[in-house]
Structure formats: C-alpha cells, structure tokens
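Form 12-C: Joint structure prediction
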Amino acid sequence: MKNVTKTYQKDDLIVKWQPHKCIHSAICFHGLPMVFDPRRKPWISMDGANKQEIIAQVKRCPSGALSFQADENT
Ligand code: SF4
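Section 2 - Result
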C-alpha cells in the first residue's frame, strides 16, 4: 500500500494523519469526537475543538498515525 499523509490545517496548527500507521484504536474518536469522526468525510474537523485540545488528543495517538506541527505556546 502506498504510504500517504493527509493534512488538516487551522491557522498555524497542522494535523497530519498517516493511514498506514493507524491501528484503529479509536482513542482519538472517543477522546475528541467533535474533531475525530471516522463516519464523516473528511473525518478530521479542525473546527471541532480549540488548538490545545486538538494537540493534546493528537499526542494520545498510540501508533504515531497522528502528528502535528504548531507553535505550542500560542
Ligand atoms: S488514535 Fe491514532 S491509531 Fe487510534 S484511531 Fe486515532 S489515528 Fe488511529
């Protein structure tokens, strides 16, 4: 399978998702369903929570499928 990276952006926060790494633990979905919802397209909605909430949830991803780029101090 081709290794693709999907990106989602709001202001200076960029969330990246690498589907080939995702183990479908549903931790993101249960932790922040307003942002992460696999039934929706696109399944990540950057308007569902504030920046710090999204960053905190991305850090809980056990597989490394989710990652982010941002200035964490703003
Ligand atoms: S928390 Fe990470 S591994 Fe689990 S479903 Fe979400 S993206 Fe996939």
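Section 3 - Comments
Residues 6-69 form a domain with the Alpha-Beta Plaits fold (CATH 3.30.70.20). The first helix runs from residue 27 to 31.
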